[in-house]
């Protein structure tokens, strides 16, 4: 029974985060970003493929800015999933290595984990992929500031 409760709590949390991303961050709403997996170990966010996000019409490859936003959002959500309390956060630094172009027509996933959390800074890493983390489109490492009110 406890695992069923945890599942429902996680589902409710994902729905709340998705509502927040849609209502409070218009850019994320326009991109269609959705949290599809959430836990203390991290978060996975989906970027649905869309022609309006194509960077090069000749190849159909997603624009790097859309990939960056996906990775940044997944990293931020991973930080929230690790924190014991709610606080504002902001990206301090985000380094992204693009390993190969995203496949045209395919949704992109970003899996992020917050591997170190201090009082003031969170450290994250992420992989963007099409479902196979062993064949990432991009890898990232970043830091987020935690703002105390």
Automatic annotation (TrEMBL):
The keyword Hydrolase applies. CDD domains: PaaI_thioesterase. Residues 60-132 form the Thioesterase domain. Pfam families: 4HBT (PF03061). InterPro entries: HotDog_dom_sf, PAAI_dom, Thioestr_dom. Keywords: Hydrolase. It comes from the Bacteria. PANTHER family: 1,4-DIHYDROXY-2-NAPHTHOYL-COA THIOESTERASE 1 (PTHR43240), BLR7284 PROTEIN (PTHR43240:SF7). This is PaaI family thioesterase. It comes from Archangium minus.
